[in-house]
Write a structure and sequence with these properties.
With 291 residues, this protein is an alpha+beta fold. It is built from 9 helices and 8 strands. 38% of the residues are buried. The protein binds flavin-adenine dinucleotide (FAD).
């Protein structure tokens, strides 16, 4: 997350001090981030976020709850999205800001990170309760009130990169390894089709990277990459489960069944994290002038 979206966010919106202190550590792989956007009553509708930062002497006092926060139990920093002004019906996107939260200082000083165990029985995401967490003045990221613009800009990085179409790649590679060179026709056709789709998605993703580099706003194109990518990632699991003729619990074979077992339980989340399929398709339809 740090190199995918928080680093570029800092590069675009951070102060010189924030960039100098953190970006080299991200590049060196020494610093990790988590993303505090979703809340119990605010997932797809991020503008409904209720976590509030109020101005106090020397900084801000934050109260609220974040949920599904991947890696909050390990991350060095959180980019926290919250309201800095009361909600206005006239403009739901106004009055929000982002903060750069030093997690080592925050945990135990107003922030409580509780594990949520996922379907695989693993601890990946968390509920983060925030009660009277004090953040210094310079913890704000970018300009006060620009949170919505910043967070939507960040989502283009989150949605268009390789981790939105390569989540099942190891399974495809293992299936090719296990079945080639004598794969039955049905399997060969299926694996060839999946491979050609990955090659195409890689091109799409690279063209979004080109738009980002040119300073353009590829929110729509990024939604397209994520939706097509998620369809392919989920389809890969189902297709290989059928053509490879292995069951997840088949202990006799080697790597393929365990990768398959892992992905059968993980794949449902691909079209939820980073924006659900319905939300992305709504964005794409709007971009095509269909709604
Ligand atoms: C593995 C994983 C990791 C995650 N990591 C993070 C993280 O690190 N940080 C973070 O902030 N969040 C994270 N999330 C949360 C994720 O962003 C939300 O789950 C997602 O945005 C959906 O929000 P929700 O769960 O509240 O569902 P809801 O918004 O309640 O949606 C429920 C259902 O209703 C549909 N729906 C909602 N609104 C509409 C609409 N307007 N039109 C049509 N259909 C609609 C949705 O598509 C969905 O099917 C993670 C989620 C997962 C699964």
């Amino acid at each position: 997350m740090a190199d995918r979206q928080s680093g570029p966010n800092l590069l675009r919106n951070g102060t010189e001090e924030q960039r100098a202190a953190i970006l080299p550590r991200i590049a060196a792989g020494e610093c990790s981030f988590c993303i505090g956007m979703s809340e119990p009553d605010s997932g797809s509708d991020l503008a409904a976020a209720r976590t509030r930062a109020q101005r106090v002497q020397g900084g801000w006092l934050v109260n609220g709850t974040k949920v599904w926060t991947s890696g909050a139990h390990e991350a060095d920093y959180m980019i926290l999205f919250c309201r800095t002004e009361a909600k206005s019906d006239a403009d739901r996107h106004a009055g929000a800001s982002q903060f750069l939260v030093d997690m080592a200082k925050a945990r135990g000083a107003g922030m409580t990170v509780r594990p949520i165990i996922d379907m695989r029985g693993e601890h990946h995401f968390n509920e983060v309760a925030i009660q009277d967490l004090f953040l210094p003045e310079d913890a704000i990221l970018g300009r006060e009130g620009d949170g919505w613009k910043q967070v939507t800009g960040e989502l283009a990085y989150e949605r268009s990169g390789p981790d939105r179409f390569l989540s099942s790649f190891t399974l495809l590679a293992e299936a090719v390894r296990a079945l080639a060179p004598d794969a039955p026709d049905r399997a060969a056709v299926a694996l060839g089709r999946l491979t050609s789709h990955i090659v195409t998605l890689r091109r799409l993703s690279r063209s979004v990277a080109g738009m980002l580099r040119a300073g353009e706003d590829p929110a729509l194109q990024a939604a397209l990459v994520k939706d097509l990518g998620n369809v392919l990632e989920q389809e890969t699991v189902e297709v290989i489960r059928l053509v490879a003729d292995v069951e997840p619990e088949d202990e006799a074979a080697e790597v393929l069944p365990s990768v398959l077992a892992h992905l059968v339980l993980t794949a449902p989340s691909f079209s939820l994290r980073g924006g659900t399929r319905e939300i992305l398709r709504g964005m794409i339809a709007r971009g095509l002038g269909l709604r």
